[in-house]
TrEMBL record:
Domain of life (superkingdom): Eukaryota
PROSITE patterns documented for this protein: GLYCOSYL_HYDROL_F17
Keyword vocabulary terms for this entry: Glycosidase, Hydrolase, Signal
Name of the protein described by the UniProt record: glucan endo-1,3-beta-D-glucosidase
Family to which the UniProt record says this protein belongs: Belongs to the glycosyl hydrolase 17 family.
Gene3D superfamilies: Glycosidases
Entry's Gene Ontology molecular function annotations: glucan endo-1,3-beta-D-glucosidase activity
Signal peptide positions (record): 1-25
EC number: 3.2.1.39
Organism annotation: Eucalyptus globulus (Tasmanian blue gum)
Enzymatic reactions: Hydrolysis of (1->3)-beta-D-glucosidic linkages in (1->3)-beta-D-glucans
Length: 340
């Protein structure tokens, strides 16, 4: 074989290997699929978009039948949320929880890889929080009875669940949330399930740009920005997550891993704080961190999963930044490239 032809073949093989490796790696990244818009593509089209960009995990905020049908046989891992208004009935008894499960999960269980079911989405103390733990218990009972060993139950909480978070070692649960959170994290520990956390460095930066450095919020700081005892932090997301780790540890729970259920950066809606370039920088670096399978300074060896918020700009959300977290326009074109 001629040397030039051999070089060409080796180059093609190397290129294919690289792109296959990138596609496999991206399968570890998740994106939230919100549907608060009147111009969004069909769920079948959306699932094809996930597959086109090798996005391997999807988070649904409720059991939308069209989305679940489109996900059949897709190979995409699914985190399925329960509507907050459904929590009281699911919490009331195992039978009512089973009714929900049999209607929304059981018909798809053979064709969809459900990873987590989350009892509520950012339930706040004093609202429906008292229903989260009993709902989790009831769902866990049903899953155990069905012997679905790969499916776990959790919930998604906001950063405001913490009363103190800076520096991370001072992390404690807010007094109004503490009683509910202690029960929840003990349940998660007993079932080897993670806690899903919504963590947005953008909001911390936008609310206090004098004291929160942009490079610290965007994973671009050249070195440590915050030192906390013997731990150093070069990005705000790690600090936010470790505040949760410290808060759980102070309640005697050190075995619960974290999943970043939501994180992102809006590309418009708040002047110079929200540009496509800033959004691209944050989300590309978010992907880079999670593909590197990096833990946090406090738990460097613990595997983290991460979901970007969100797949689309959703025009029925409140005007401003809430409409501009999307990675894609409703026509399927990228708002800015992240996965290419």
């Amino acid at each position: 074989m001629a040397p030039a032809l051999m070089i060409l073949i080796l180059s093609i093989v190397a290129s294919l290997h690289y792109h296959i490796r990138i596609a496999i790696a991206l399968s570890d990244i998740g994106v939230n699929y919100g549907m608060v818009g009147d111009n969004l593509p069909s769920p079948a089209t959306v699932v094809q978009l996930y597959k086109k960009y090798s996005i391997g995990k999807i988070r649904l905020f409720d059991p939308n039948p069209d989305a679940l049908s489109a996900l059949r046989g897709s190979g995409i891992d699914v985190t399925l949320g329960i509507k907050n208004q459904d929590l009281p009935s699911i919490a009331s008894s195992v039978d009512t929880a089973k009714t929900w499960f049999d209607a929304n999960v059981q018909p798809y269980i053979s064709d969809i890889n459900f990873q987590y079911i989350t009892a509520g989405n950012e339930v706040v103390p004093g609202d429906l929080a008292q229903y989260v733990l009993p709902a989790m218990h009831n769902l866990h009972t049903i899953i155990s009875n069905y012997k679905y060993t790969g499916l776990r139950v959790s919930t998604a909480v906001a950063s405001s669940t913490l009363g103190t978070s800076y520096p991370p070692s001072t992390g404690v649960f807010a007094e109004a949330a503490r009683a509910d959170m202690v029960g929840i994290i003990n349940f998660l520990s007993s079932t080897s399930s993670p806690l899903l956390v919504n963590a947005y460095p953008y909001f911390a930066y936008a609310s206090d740009p004098i004291n929160v450095r942009l490079d610290y919020a965007q994973f671009t700081a050249p070195g440590p920005v915050v030192r906390d005892g013997n731990l150093s932090y070069s990005n705000l997301l790690d600090a936010m997550l470790d505040a949760f780790n410290w808060a759980m540890e102070k309640e005697g729970v050190s075995s619960v891993d974290l999943v970043v259920a939501e994180s992102g950066w809006p590309s418009a809606g708040n002047g110079n704080f929200t540009t496509p370039q800033l959004a691209q920088t944050y989300n590309k670096n978010f992907v880079k961190k999670f593909l590197a399978k990096q833990g946090t300074p406090k738990r460097p060896d613990h595997y983290l999963e991460g979901f970007i918020f969100a797949m689309f700009n959703e025009n029925k959300k409140p005007p401003g930044v809430e409409q501009n977290f999307g990675l894609f326009n409703p026509d399927g074109t990228p708002v800015y490239p992240v996965f290419s």
